[in-house]
Amino acid sequence: MGRLLAPTLTYLAYLLAAVIGSQRQQHRVQHGSCSYTFILPEAEHCHPAKDFQVTNTLQRDSPTEAEPDATESKERPSWNERKLESLESAMENNTQWLQKLENFIQENVRSGMEEIKRSAVHTQTAAMLEMGTNLLSQSAEQTRKLTDVETQVLNQTSRLEIQLLEYSLFTNRLEKHILLQTQEISRLSEKNSFLEQRLLALEARYGRELQGLESEKQQLHDLLERQSRLVSRLQGELGSSTLNSTSLQRQQAVLTDTVQQLLSKVSHCNEISNTPKKEPLSFRDCAEILRSGVKESGVYSIRLHNSTQDVKVFCDMKTRGGGWTVLQHRRNGSVDFHRGWRDYKTGFGEPSGEHWLGNDIIHKLTSSREYSLQVQLKDREGSEAFSHYDRFSIDGEDKNYSLHAEGFSGTAGRTSSLTHTGSQFSTKDRDNDRCTCKCAQLASGGWWFDACGPSNLNGIYYPASSSVVRYNGIKWYYWKGPNLMATTTTMMVRPAHF
Ligand SMILES: *[C@@H]1O[C@H](CO)[C@@H](O)[C@H](O)[C@H]1NC(C)=O
Ligand SMILES: *[C@@H]1O[C@H](CO)[C@@H](O)[C@H](O)[C@H]1NC(C)=O
Ligand SMILES: *[C@@H]1O[C@H](CO)[C@@H](O)[C@H](O)[C@H]1NC(C)=O
Ligand SMILES: *[C@@H]1O[C@H](CO)[C@@H](O)[C@H](O)[C@H]1NC(C)=O
Ligand SMILES: *[C@@H]1O[C@H](CO)[C@@H](O)[C@H](O)[C@H]1NC(C)=O
Ligand SMILES: CC(=O)N[C@H]1CO[C@H](CO)[C@@H](O)[C@@H]1O
């Protein structure tokens, strides 16, 4: 306001000066519907008369036209008088003049002052009014601008608020989303840790399995190497045997030649002698084979009496004159003797090694004629002994292969270890003993158990290192007690009257 006021005051001063200095002192002020016109007095052009010389030099003592008059009066005698008179009149005129002037000036000044005052007041009022109007309009303008600014600010504020609201909504949504994500992440991490544990467990398990598999693989690898070495050795052998076979073929060819020569010779002989051919020999037992001239122990074929069946048996041609047909033989425990009824009935093992000839065959053999029995024993210390029975036979299966043994003699004990006549044969699956127990299961093998008796040559073959007393081993009680550490046992028969 102060700044506005200063130019206004300047303007007012200017207006005042203009009012005083202008030719037509008139000023109009418009305020609302009213208009004010101020007419101001003219100061410069308000001369009294043409001859009424008024100059700004108010202190003019005498007019310039009066001087020539003064020079004329000097030439005349009464000049001083006249001069005096004129001076007096002039003075009077001047005085009048002065008075007039004074009056005029006084009047003029008074009215001028009033006018000035009035006009000044008017001007001032007008200026003030104008100023007021200006101020009013300016303030209205300012108010309008202010309102505009206010609306703009409000607009901005509302817009900002809307944006803020949107942002907060967005933020809320984001927060919710983040919360969901966090939950998801935590769930996933839980799952992950669970899976890791599972993985660790699986790794541990599979690691162990893998180690086992690797060791197995190593073993298989070793086996494979051994096998391949074996294969290569076999290949070498095959090569040499191929060579051998070619040499054998050559030998065979030579032999074939020889045989043909012999055949031709034989046919020639036949032609010469023309004697009838003998029937091919069949032997009932090893004694007959021995009698036919064979002196070597070994496996031979016999045909049982009253039968068409050929049986391979081992013939002992050395012991006490030979001719023994072997029923039972053991020497290294390679054959399992803990067997059932059917195996003992038909026989098992190989006649060249450990074997049991078979109860049916023994029955048929010993029932076809009278036989004696020889039991040949050898223990680990190398001592040998035997038990002999003059008469020996067993019944058929219908009587459970009952034992008949008489005429005991020998070195393996003073009394017979074989049970008395009539004992039935028992195996682990057929219990025919006189014990409430099952001797074949206790003592193992198949034998003529009594209850359970002092002998069992078909017991378990224990290795030499075993020193423990066992009741299921090989037993020939009256020679070596309950525990015979036998290396070989042989049961063999020969016709009683050999
Ligand atoms: C706010 O101003 C914008 C332009 O700046 C205009 O388009 C809008 O209509 C205004 N809103 C209000 C509520 O005045
Ligand atoms: C081949 O024959 C020789 C003797 O002729 C014998 O020493 C060798 O063991 C035989 N080889 C085979 C693989 O039978
Ligand atoms: C077998 O021998 C028995 C006597 O031991 C006899 O009764 C039977 O007839 C014989 N069988 C044959 C086929 O010879
Ligand atoms: C037992 O003897 C037989 C016949 O001599 C032989 O084939 C087998 O390999 C031997 N077994 C053992 C374990 O010594
Ligand atoms: C032979 O043994 C069986 C049982 O193993 C038995 O039933 C049968 O009576 C026995 N036979 C004789 C003649 O005792
Ligand atoms: C001496 C002088 O100048 N007198 C004059 C005074 O005024 C009158 C009229 O105004 C003149 O006529 C006189 O001559």
From TrEMBL:
It comes from the Eukaryota. GO terms for biological process: angiogenesis; blood coagulation. Residues 71-80 have a biased composition (Basic and acidic residues). Keywords: Angiogenesis, Coiled coil, Disulfide bond, Glycoprotein, Secreted, Signal. Residues 185-230 form a coiled coil. Residues 56-80 are annotated as: Disordered. The keyword Cell cycle does not apply. It is found in: Secreted. One of its GO terms (cellular component) is extracellular region. InterPro entries: ANG-1/2/4, FIB_ANG-like, Fibrinogen-like_C, Fibrinogen_a/b/g_C_1, Fibrinogen_a/b/g_C_dom, Fibrinogen_CS. Residues 277-497 form the Fibrinogen C-terminal domain. Residues 1-21 form the signal peptide. NCBIfam families: GGGWT_bact. PANTHER family: FIBRINOGEN ALPHA CHAIN. This is (Atlantic silverside) hypothetical protein. The lineage of its organism: Eukaryota, Metazoa, Chordata, Craniata, Vertebrata.
